[in-house]
Amino acid sequence: MSELVTILVLVAVAVVAAFSLRSWLSAQLAKTPATEMAIAEWSAVYTGSVWIITINVRNNLDRSLTLNATRIAFADGSVQGAGSFAGTSFTGLTLRSPTSLPQTIAPKSSLSIVVTSNAAVTNPPKVCEVAVIDTATRASGWVQAVGGQQV
Question: Same domain for 75 and 42?
């Protein structure tokens, strides 16, 4: 009889330990940061008649991303863009390289795009975003680019 009690106590301890381990693992998973699909950097230069804006988009995933659009907010609050995303077409920017969107970004690689805007020198670009779609999961969203130094 004492062997049966010992076995039942060990099973009870194992069940409690299993639930505790499961709870701890769930808590650790919640703390794990998600990988961002993409990161982007941008810079701008005024040439005397147009803003030339270069945007570098880095795909952080192990699968392809599609770059569908870009939009830029200027100092006066106006927004210009190129491409289309989520049923909205964006205008005001001229694509220089590449000359069309969407573009596919290979896994773990980068794509640079160059756009121009006829905004005045007194109305510099302030915020730049790109719209990307994960080709495998169809997850999508806007990624805000960092940088923005005007050279």
Answer: yes
97 bridge partner residues: 114
* Cα–Cα distance for residue pair 108/114, rounded to 1 Å: 20
pLDDT, tens digit, for every residue of 30-83?
Answer: 554 456 889 999 999 999 889 999 999 999 999 999 999 999 999 999 999 999
Amino acid identity, residue 127? V
Structure tokens at 77: 């609050």
Residues 6 or more apart in contact with residue 5 via CB below 8 angstroms: none
| Host domain of residue 28 | 1-32
Q: Are 138 and 64 in contact (CB under 8 A)?
A: no
